[in-house]
Amino acid sequence: MLTRTLPPEQWWIGAVISGVVFMIAIHPVATTAKKKLLLPLIPLAGGAFLFFDTAGDEDAHPVVWFTAIMITFAVLRIIFAPYLRRQFALARSGQQMQTMTGRQQAVFWFTFLIVTVAVLLVI
Length: 123
Description:
This protein is globular. It has helices at 8-26, 33-38, 41-53, 61-79, 81-92, 102-122. Helices cover 73% and strands 0% of the residues. The chain is mainly α. It has 6 helices and no strands. Helix 1 packs antiparallel against helix 3, helix 3 (41-53) packs antiparallel against helix 4 and helix 4 crosses helix 6 (102-122).
């Protein structure tokens, strides 16, 4: 872990930064103006819950997990960018997006697991 000695106060800085990175990475996924306005609620709601749930705790583990998950979703957005680009092109052309096959779902969840573990090992 690169950040083994960080106190919880500094982990909050990482959580805020990772929430912003998540919003930037996921922003193209929001296809309507309403969804683009609601997008910041995802990390804000998670961060607010963590803040009130961990108030007074000496441990930073929940904040570390939040940070890792936000970074994981941003990395997955980059990894699966070609697939998402094709799906958005279908939606823009008026066609329906293709549903994910079982194999695609398995690849996604396996990649999610590997990226999450890698992020947790690095941070």
